[in-house]
Write a structure and sequence with these properties.
This protein is α/β, with parallel strands linked by helices and about 325 residues long. The chain has 11 helices and 10 strands. The chain folds into 2 domains: about 120 residues, Nucleotidyltransferase, domain 5; about 170 residues, ATPase, nucleotide binding domain (Nucleotidyltransferase, domain 5). Helix 3 crosses helix 11, helix 4 crosses helix 5 and helix 4 packs antiparallel against helix 9.
């Protein structure tokens, strides 16, 4: 039996899927975070996460982790592939081993392997696409200092800036200040600013407060409405930049979105409206999750066309 492996390695967890040659998923397993390998601690976490999710997937499939060999394996990571290839070559027996970035497997999963564009807006933001000629392009993904426009961290940053201006008397009134202070227990917006500069508040935690912007907008806060509107415009611009690099004018392109920022229906609706102003764009939710995208890419690199079946239920 020819076996294929797809792995999504992220900042919060790692997911592995094993499928037979028909595309039927026969095993799935989850491990810990594995986006970094630098330093002894990072290396150990990475190896344990990969080994853990692979052993769990093999157990569900009735396979021995020590005896299994894959026709093709594709693994995508949020921390990038360059420092992981050699480690994985020693861990995963495969005729074809593809180590890539998380944007590619998210795209392949979202479009079921078809040409298109994925816009990711979680803690940060990036747009990535691939056309029928196998050409790829990206826009954004510059990190929280120089970019990540429209991502969760950026939304919280804009909210705190608005709260600071209001607190100091040179900004519009906004309930965002009160909401941020209540959520964090800070005494003032200035106090919260200094807290956010410490290691007590990692970037994903700061980004999680972006939901307050949506809540404030729902309550009619003008400042929050403007922040969401601007974020939707920036994310749409990232999508448009990728489209311009890969697709002809009017050419059909499937556009998908993924990430916590798109839980805001107000932002999503505006993003969708702006992107679909471009002829040929069709915006919709992802068909599959990134782990399934990695599995599809493994099949693709082996020259096998399948439709995946028996996928595990998505986490809510």
């Amino acid at each position: 039996m020819r076996l294929f492996l797809g792995v999504d390695g992220g900042q919060s967890s790692t997911m592995a899927l094993i499928a037979d040659e028909s595309g039927r998923v026969i095993g799935s397993g989850r491990g810990g975070p594995c986006n970094h390998v630098k330093g002894p601690e990072g290396y150990t976490k990475f190896v344990n996460a990969i080994r853990g999710c692979l052993e769990a997937a093999c157990a569900e499939a009735g396979l021995s982790p020590d005896g299994v060999r894959f026709e093709a394996a594709c693994l995508g990571f949020s921390g990038g592939p360059s420092d992981k290839q050699a480690i994985l070559e020693s861990m995963i027996p495969a005729d074809r081993l593809i180590v890539t970035h998380d944007a590619l497997i998210a795209l392949v999963g979202a479009t079921a392997g078809q040409p298109g564009i994925i816009t990711i807006a979680g803690t940060g933001s990036i747009a990535f696409g691939r056309n029928a000629d196998d050409e790829t392009a990206r826009a954004g993904g510059w990190g929280y200092i120089f970019g990540d426009e429209g991502g969760g961290f950026d939304l919280t940053r804009q909210a705190l800036r608005a709260a600071l201006r209001f607190e100091e008397g040179w900004g519009q009134p906004t309930i965002l200040r009160e909401m941020l202070l209540k959520e964090t227990g800070a005494e003032s917006a200035n106090d919260l600013l200094h807290r956010f500069y410490t290691t007590d508040y990692p970037r994903p935690q700061i980004a999680s407060y972006s939901r307050l912007v949506d809540e404030a907008a729902t309550a009619g806060d003008r400042v929050a409405l403007d922040i969401l509107s601007y974020a939707a415009q920036q994310l749409a611009q990232l999508t448009g930049a990728v489209r311009q690099q890969l697709f002809e004018e009017g050419e059909e392109a499937r556009v998908a979105y993924i990430g916590g920022v798109f839980r805001s229906q107000r932002l999503l609706q505006q993003y969708r409206m702006l992107v679909e102003l471009e002829d040929g764009n069709h915006v919709g939710p992802p068909e599959y999750e990134p782990a399934a995208g990695a599995l599809l890419e493994a099949f693709r690199r082996a020259g096998v066309t399948v439709r995946l079946t028996n996928l595990p239920e998505r986490e809510k």
